[in-house]
Amino acid sequence: MGDVKLICFLSSYAVAAACEFVRLRLTARVVRWVGVGFLTAGLVAHTWYLWDRGTRLNLPPLLSSTQDWMLVLAWIAAVFTLFLTLIDRRVAVGLFLLPFIVALVAVASLAPSEPNELVRQAARGTALRNWGMLHATLLVFGIAGVLIAVVLSAMYLYQHHRLRAKHGSGRGPVLPSLVRLARLNWWAIVISVPLITLGMATGVGLALVAPPAREGRPVTLRDPVVIGNAIAWLVMMVLFVWLLRADHPPAKRVARLTVWVFGFLLVMLTGLQILSGGPLPSWHR
User: Fold this and answer.
1) Please, how many CA atoms are within 13 Å of residue 240, restricted to the half-sphere of its CB?
2) Domain residue spans in the chain?
3) pLDDT (tens digit, 9 = 90+) per residue, 113-167?
4) Do the Cβ atoms of 64 and 115 come closer than 8 Å?
């Protein structure tokens, strides 16, 4: 297990995703269990990779680097996918979640793998370390909720299209009812937006109270990453306020807005972290 590399669990997740698409044409039980096997193997390798990285750096994965933080997000999504796949073999949740997991791990390979100066400063003091953990935890669970909301919205739009085309009972993935998907999507939005808001607020507070950075440029309110995250947060809040104020908003419109707004948020948060992280690392252990 000491030779586990990022490419190992990325490949396992990719094979598991391919099995989900094969199940659209071939309903053999062996295809499902092959997919579950590769998903489980990928999750085990993924867990060991994060544990090994945290041990070597003497930092929890949420604080070690942007790359590890994104891999924790992918790990949460993989656990969620495996859990739902095992408790209900009929619902094809992996068909929608696994491509996101594969994309997230692939994007994480481009993110910086070394702790930034702000993390190093926070790790030197107990108070700042706890503050940093709170910031990272709120943000990772908030974005996990965003990812789940996007997936639920995609499932809703796909199921809505199937029912309108009168293919709901034919061959294809089995999905929950539109009412259930709309309710779950509403809760995912309502829970994830406050978590992201608190995560961003604690991040700004951490940047303001941390000692001045000894290496690199300091974080300021004019930093492109800060400005980009603020824009993404404002767009997200518009959807959040509209959802709470609207009287029985159309579920299809909510699903479409969730895909566009939360998809924009995911691209902004991950893209800005990569662009601001310096050299792109190779596939490493």
Assistant:
1) 20
2) 1-113, 116-280
3) 776 555 555 555 556 677 777 887 888 888 888 888 888 898 898 888 888 876 6
4) yes
